[in-house]
Amino acid sequence: MAKDRVIPLSPGRKTRSSSHLSPSKPSAQNVCPFSSQTESQELIRCLYSSEEPISLATLISSLPGRKPQILEILRLVGSLNSPMFPLLIYGGPSNGKTVSILQIFRYLNRPFVYAGCRTCYSPRILFDSILRQLLLHGRNPIKGNSGTKRCEKPSEFIDLLRIALVQAINALRERNLKSGSEEVDRGEMIYLIFDNFELLRSWDRNSNIVPLLLRIHEILKIPEVGIIYISSSTPDAYFLCTGSIEPITIYFPDYTLEDLHGIFMRNQPNPKLYSSFLSVVLKPFFRVTRRVDELSVAFQPLFQKYCKPLVDQSVVPDEAMKRKLFDNLQPDVTASLNDLFMVPSQSSYQIEQEGDLQKKGIRKSNRKEASNELDFHMSMSAKYLLLSAFIASRNPATLDASLFDSSGGLINRKRNKNSQMSMDRKDSMAEEILLKGPGSFPLERLLAIFQCITSVAESMVEEEQCENGAAIESESVGLTSDVLLQMSALCNANFICKSGSCPLEGSTRYRCTVDEEMAVRVAKSINFPLSSYLYRR
Ligand SMILES: Nc1ncnc2c1ncn2[C@@H]1O[C@H](COP(=O)(O)OP(=O)(O)OP(=O)(O)O)[C@@H](O)[C@H]1O
Fold first, then answer.
1. How far apart are CA 516 and CA 524, in angstroms?
2. Nearest to 123 by CA among 100, 95, 153
3. 293 CB contacts (<8 Å, ≥6 apart)?
4. Whose CA is closest to atom 8 on ligand 1?
5. Is 383 in the pocket of ligand 1 (CB under 6 A)?
6. In the prediction, which pLDDT does 239 show?
7. Where is the ORC5 lid domain (predicted)?
8. ∠ CA 333-335-337, rounded to 5°
9. Cα dihedral value 99, 101, 105, 108, nearest 10
10. Which numeric CATH code is attached to 17-252?
């Protein structure tokens, strides 16, 4: 794509860019102009990447493993002044989504506003950050709504955002007209980037901020504004019930071994030495994690240890030297791998409880401990999701309604004489299902079961919290966050597999592949009464 080629504007585009804004919306006339040209210039400068622009070749070589995604994003963002559909960039954590988009804008050298939902951790802070970037950090007053006034309500935010955007677009347009042919035309588009969008869902369960931001393009109706969402959750997490037009998605897959090799080899003063180090550490660590941040934290001290026997670190190691360095490093690799692998899978509450038991001299038998233990890490919500999938695969769907009450809890299944016949029928259905093996289920059923069992678990935890006055931390709360991300992780781990689509509905069905022994171990690790949820003969 030619970076600075100005695409001739279509007639529609000319009309729109000359005056797209309808009278009801703030126009150049009813928006307070910049008080000085310096302010206008400062705003424009603030909207560009703070780093020097780079070439396309540098962009691609600086981000190993991301060339296809970069080219795809560039194609979708389009040439100068071309309107774009909203984009959703998604993929696993720490796999280069943020760095890629920021470097892309450095290459494009176009104005953008970046709002990270990790640092801007509440709607108010997020709104404030976006408006400040557009309004010269609060120094440019929009009459009646000064930049210093904090914006609380979404409707207020949308109004101020529209005003600020129109003002900024007009400033860009003016700058382009004034600079004429002396300067390169940098266009009139402004891009809003929402990073870590998945976090928004955990801010407030009843908040309407997610649907609002997902519809922001439709609400603003300003073609000079491009919207980019970055998320580590899949698109399904957002668009099942918002009713908004789905953005174009770009998936960032996990890095391959070669990609990670390329990433870690960048800017190494002694590439041959570092390459011999990577040949020792990368493969074993790759089996545990593909996250660049985790790998770089693990590699840093290991490389220091690897180089310790060397007097001169610019030396190119021969085979004998490599073997010696490897032998020296080997015990640390194992220890570091264990550190990375053994992420605590128990909630701090459980740990506290066990600590209490030990203090009281009550020791669990080793056998029980071993049977409860999982030899891999899984988050609390992934465990609940896996158990929901197991229940969905084992129980006939027609029995769900009799298993869960309307509030999501487990119905007390005491048989009475009147219901004995129907229970017998249900039991024979359960038996048939057992014989057929794990059944398939649609995503909706899985989510419904997940919702039911987590609501029970959360209320149990709250009750225990009240009883014990103990502090329960993150893992036990917010079980429902990132459920679709967990789903894709469980599919990747082959605990849940896709099992074709329903010919009538066309929707994908899933099947749980874990056996009962494994499900029981997962259930025990979170004290979940699995057997009460399973139909048996
Ligand atoms: N291809 C790459 N080349 C160079 N560095 C990379 C690459 N991919 C990731 N990194 C580095 O890994 C770290 C994490 O990357 P980044 O923040 O872009 O990930 P992310 O996908 O946005 O993560 P999250 O979803 O957790 O926000 C950064 O320090 C980044 O520089």
1. 12
2. 153
3. 94
4. 96
5. no
6. 65
7. 274-326
8. 65
9. 120
10. 3.40.50.300
Q: Over the stretch 303-358, which tens digit does the pLDDT of each residue have?
A: 999 988 888 888 888 888 888 888 888 888 888 887 776 544 444 434 444 444 44
pLDDT, one tens digit per residue, over 220-241 is 999 999 999 999 888 877 765 5
Distance CA 440, CA 525 (A): 25
Would the CB of 290 count as within 6 Å of ligand 1? no
Q: For residue 87, how far is its CA from the centre of ligand 1 (angstroms)?
A: 19
Q: State how far the Cα of 517 lies from the Cα of 432, in Å rounded to an integer.
A: 20
Place of tokens 């998604």: 90
Query: Counting Cβ atoms within 10 Å, is residue 264 exposed (0-12), middle (13-18) or buried (19+)?
Result: buried
Better pLDDT: 20 or 329:
329
Distance 209 CA to ligand 1 centre (A): 26
* Ligand 1 site, residue 65, Cβ cutoff 6 A: yes
- The residue ranges of every structural domain in the chain are 17-252, 257-341, 379-533
ipTM surpasses 0.90 = yes
Q: Are 212 and 49 in contact (CB under 8 A)?
A: no
Distance 113 CA to ligand 1 centre (A): 19
User: How does the average pLDDT of the chain come out, rounded?
Assistant: 74
Closest among 9, 74, 77 to 227, alpha carbons compared: 77
Assigned token pair, 421:
């016949």
Asked if 426 contacts 401 with a C-beta cutoff of 8 angstroms, the reply is: no
Sheet holding 508-512, edge to edge: 440-442, 508-512, 496-501
- Across the range 90-106, mean pLDDT stands at 93
Label residue 426 by pLDDT band (50, 70, 90): low
Distance 292 CA to ligand 1 centre (A): 6
pLDDT at 61: 95
